[in-house]
Structures are given as C-alpha cells and as structure tokens.
C-alpha cells in the first residue's frame, strides 16, 4: 500500500503489567505490543512513514502518564528511532491540538494503520477523526488493547469492550484486520 503511515498510540509503560510501577495496566498489553512491533518492523524494513503518539496528562495528580515520568515513556520494545515522527498529546484524540494531520499530509499519506491503546478511547477517537479527515483507515485489532470498563453499574470485561468498539469501527470507519492480514497488505 502506497502512501501509508503507521500510527502507534499510547503504548506507554503505565499500561504494561510487566512494567514495575505501572499505574493503569490494560488487558494483554504485552501481546498487543508484540503484534504492533511486527507491523513496526515491517514499516522500518520498507522505510515507510511511522508516527509514535504519546500521552501525558496536563492536570495536577494525573492517574497515569504523569509528565516526565517513567510510566509516560513509550515502552522499550517500541522505542522510536530518530527518523520516526513523535507526537505528544494531552487529549484523547491524537489529532486535537497536535500536528498529526500536518505530518501525515506533508508525507502525502492517504492510508493509516492504527495500533495501540485504549481501544474504547484513543484508538476509537483517532480512527474516527482520521476517517473524517478522509484517510483510509486500517486497525490491527490484535495490536490494540483496553481495560475493563463500567457504566451505570454494568461491568464490561476488556475483551467484550474491545470487541464492541472494533465492531463499531469496522461498521463505518475502518477495515479492522489481524496483524497478519495487515502485514499481507504491506
């Protein structure tokens, strides 16, 4: 796929159970990161556009991703290289108040592959925004992760929350594929 960028969203230490002191562990983050790494490796081999997005809360006493903390750093397995774009965001949507769209447009990107966390927050937001901006979106669902969620006393396990959001994205915003299917497209 020509004119394609990989967008890695919030694969930061605080989400990893293997990171000592993680403040917001998600479901199977290591598995999702391993799949994201497979796609990242292919992008590096093909010298394709890569954008790493990292979140820091711009509030006092954040629950996780505190500015300049070890927990807010991108996990070591996915450390950006010097020639790869990096974006710091303070909102759920990686396009809001960042130069993400400018980076993509400057590289004539028409397709985006999205991986990372959390499925029902930042992955959902960036995918819908990218689609609204006219990019053809692909989400590697097994390279994304989330947590359990609760609303109105209804508890939803992470796997169910993830599936619900992937189904919604697939319905109208993106092609939702496995890592292997994404790799075959490349």
Automatic annotation (TrEMBL):
<protein>
    <submittedName>
        <fullName>Cysteine hydrolase</fullName>
    </submittedName>
</protein>
<feature type="domain" description="Isochorismatase-like">
    <location>
        <begin position="4"/>
        <end position="159"/>
    </location>
</feature>
<dbReference type="Pfam" id="PF00857">
    <property type="entry name" value="Isochorismatase"/>
</dbReference>
<dbReference type="InterPro" id="IPR036380">
    <property type="entry name" value="Isochorismatase-like_sf"/>
</dbReference>
<dbReference type="InterPro" id="IPR000868">
    <property type="entry name" value="Isochorismatase-like_dom"/>
</dbReference>
<keyword id="KW-0378">Hydrolase</keyword>
<dbReference type="InterPro" id="IPR050272">
    <property type="entry name" value="Isochorismatase-like_hydrls"/>
</dbReference>
<dbReference type="GO" id="GO:0016787">
    <property type="term" value="F:hydrolase activity"/>
</dbReference>
